[in-house]
Design goal:
Strand order of the largest sheet: 1-2
Number of domains: 1
Strand content: under 5%
Distance between the termini: 39 Å
Order of helices and strands: HHEEHHHHHHHHHHHHHHHHHHHH
Mean pLDDT: 80
Helix content: 55-70%
Structural class: mainly alpha
């Protein structure tokens, strides 16, 4: 039996360890400078590897992929000329700007704060945590938009129940990362994953097919399990350090946060009811608009997942927030003229100016890292190392999780990493008896959790920037020290779930056996 003193000291030891992680992490340079330092390291490494003639075969194309020297004249010219494009085409940039234009209207109107206060003000804090976890699990369709929307909203939810808004942001960030790979819905990313897996599987079996639904059963159960695990870790571990997440005096968060204290409760409730009706009508029109096969909201040949609606979800959501924000503001007297709307939008862009500066550094580093070809070498060599092992299928799958999780610390785009390694690991595991859909499920486990602890992830950097809108001293160490225990707990729980699933032999999806 464990001594009571041991039980008491374990949380204290863990807290001290995480405090140490935070101190060390926050001694790192500001993320803006950190990425430039990493860029210098990549430049030097590329010169050494290029001189050594390091080359791999890109499994996606079958062509040689040598490491290119970033110190060459051609490299300097190409990277300099491409700097502007690298920034403007950086994934989160456009999404953040478009969403924030609309979200700022909803926030400046006071609607978000009012909604959180009226719906969650009497909710138990533990229920609020689970609610944010579930919301993150349902956010798969939103892609990058989920971070822009749910992370600030989670701050309002936690604040409404008397908890740290910064902790709310961290919980949302963790749950959204898990949602990317553990979700009951089928999203465009599932279609892409399945297409890549199918092409890889056909290297061994020309008739192989991997469907987007092949992991549905597993991901649906995983979403519930991970939401529960994250709730428990938040309450039992992260909450012990919640006192460190105190916003600075006068901090308003990532948006300007117009408050509705001067508006009578009955006016607020009436405005919320009408805003809800407008929201329902908006989504109803979208549903109706998707019904005709030739609808402009659909994609080519009437496709639903690969459609105009889902591929432009950031714009759709921005329009939604403008509509409901303007409705609420008009009914509460916050919107007196049409000129107020652009002002609200501009305030939202101002609030994320530090993020835009950070995005420039991140975009240049990632462009450099990809251009040198080092990312391809890391992925291919890692996959080849796993291929050289002669072990039982389950052991190989466990090693895949470990290897992919490490690779994911460097190559944080789930689709990009899957495209790189699937042509190697899918045929390899098929030859030892693994179902390609099972390999895809294993990839989801490894891909999800480590995104929460690596500064290489654009969404990690985004969340650090959000935290700094509440607390200027918050840094990389702050986020890592809170995400590390949750990410590790979720990974252990997810691996355990897969092990049970594999041992029992449950199907991963409709017509998709695990063996």
């Amino acid at each position: 039996m464990t001594a009571p003193s041991d039980v008491q000291h374990r949380p204290q030891r863990l807290t001290r360890f995480l405090d140490g992680v935070e101190r060390i992490g926050n001694k790192l340079p500001h993320p803006f400078w950190l990425f430039w330092i990493l860029a210098v390291v990549v430049v030097a490494t590329s010169a050494i590897m290029a001189a050594a003639g390091v080359t791999v075969i890109d499994p996606a194309t079958g062509d040689p992929s040598p490491v290119k020297n970033a110190l060459s004249v051609a490299a300097v010219r190409e990277l300099t000329l491409g700097a502007e494009e690298s920034f403007l085409t950086f994934g989160p940039l456009g999404t953040v700007l478009i969403i924030m234009i609309g979200l700022a209207v909803a926030d400046r109107s006071g609607m978000l704060e009012s909604l959180a206060r009226h719906t969650l003000g009497r909710v138990r804090p533990s229920h609020a945590v689970f609610a944010v976890c579930v919301a993150g699990a349902m956010s798969k369709f939103l892609s990058y938009s989920a971070y822009v929307i749910l992370v600030p909203l989670a701050a309002l939810v936690f604040k409404a129940v008397g908890r740290s808004p910064m902790l709310g942001m961290i919980v949302a960030f963790l749950s959204i990362n898990a949602a990317g790979d553990a979700n009951p819905f089928i999203a465009p990313s599932d279609v892409i994953f399945a297409k890549i897996a199918t092409e890889a599987a056909r290297i061994v079996d020309p008739g192989a097919i991997v469907r987007p639904t092949d992991n549905t059963y597993f991901t649906t159960v995983s979403a519930v399990v991970l939401a529960i695990v994250l709730t428990v870790v938040t309450e039992k571990v992260l909450s012990k350090r919640e006192h460190e997440l105190v916003p600075d005096d006068g901090a308003t968060g990532p948006t300007t946060g117009a408050r509705s204290d001067s508006v009578a409760d009955e006016v607020e409730l009436r405005a919320l009811r009408w805003t809800g009706i407008v929201a329902a009508v908006f989504f109803g029109l979208l549903v109706v608009g998707m019904i005709p096969a030739g609808s402009p909201l659909r994609g080519e040949h009437g496709a639903i997942l690969d459609s105009t609606l889902f591929n432009s979800i950031a714009l759709v959501l921005s329009l939604f927030f403008v509509l409901i924000g303007a409705t609420y503001a008009r009914l509460t007297g916050k919107l007196t003229s049409s000129s107020d709307l652009p002002t609200f939008m501009a305030d939202g862009i101002k609030s994320i100016a530090p993020l835009l500066v950070l995005f420039f550094a991140v975009s240049q580093f990632l462009a450099l890292f990809q251009w040198t070809g080092i990312s391809t070498v890391v992925a291919v060599r890692g996959a080849e190392g796993l291929k050289s092992l002669d072990a039982p299928v389950f052991i190989v799958l466990m090693l895949l999780i470990a290897g992919i999780a490490l690779l994911n610390l460097l190559i944080t785009s789930g689709t990009a990493l899957w495209a790189l390694i699937a042509p190697v690991i899918v045929p390899m595991t098929m030859l030892v008896g693994a179902n390609p859909a099972t390999v895809m499920a294993v990839y989801r486990i490894a891909d999800s959790c480590t995104n929460s602890i690596t500064p290489m992830s654009a969404t990690f950097v985004l969340t650090v920037g959000y935290l700094q809108t509440y607390q200027k001293k918050a840094g990389i160490g702050t986020l890592v020290s809170f995400t590390l225990p949750a990410a590790m707990a979720m990974m252990v729980a997810w691996i355990a779930l897969f092990a049970i699933w594999y041992a029992v032999g449950l199907p991963l999806g409709p017509g998709s056996p695990v063996h």
